[in-house]
Amino acid sequence: MADVKQANKQEKVGLVVSTKMAKTIVVEVIRRVPHPLYKRIISKKKKFYAHDEQGQAGVGDTVRITEERPMSKLKRWNLAEIVRKGDLLAGEKVE
């Protein structure tokens, strides 16, 4: 058998903003990019749905997610590791 070469999968680091679904977390990733015309640094946010099999991540945690095959209509990411445990409680609002 030939060696199966593993594809380079994207990784992103973001903040968990919701854990209300079973085995799924919502991770908000913030990118800082220069404005195309004015060159001022602006923040762009995007939310990703990630698979969390054991339900380890909590709201406010900083996590690393990796790209995977589609698991559902919106879920294409998998929880790789928890970088830092957050100090937010489930009822607090994330800015």
Relevant terms:
95 residues, mainly beta, globular, OB fold (Dihydrolipoamide Acetyltransferase, E2P), 52% strand
Structure description:
This protein has 95 residues and is mainly β. It has a domain at 21-84: Beta Barrel (OB fold (Dihydrolipoamide Acetyltransferase, E2P)). The chain is 0% helix and 52% strand. The chain is built from no helices and 5 strands. A 5-stranded mixed barrel has the order 1-2-3-5-4.
Widest β-sheet, arrangement of strands? 1-2-3-5-4
Q: How would the global form be characterised?
A: globular
The helix/strand order is EEEEE
Mean pLDDT: 90
Give the count of helical stretches: 0
Oligomer: single chain
CATH architecture of the domain at 21-84: Beta Barrel
Measured between the Cα atoms of the first and last residue, the distance is: 51 Å
**What is the name of the CATH topology of the domain at 21-84?**
OB fold (Dihydrolipoamide Acetyltransferase, E2P)
Structural class label: mainly beta
**Highest-level CATH class of the domain at 21-84:** Mainly Beta
Low-confidence stretches: none
Q: What's the total count of β strands?
A: 5
Largest beta sheet, briefly? 5 strands, mixed, barrel
Report the radius of gyration as a whole number of Å: 15 Å
| Helicity level | under 10%
Strand content: over 45%
Question: CATH superfamily of the domain at 21-84, please?
Answer: Nucleic acid-binding proteins
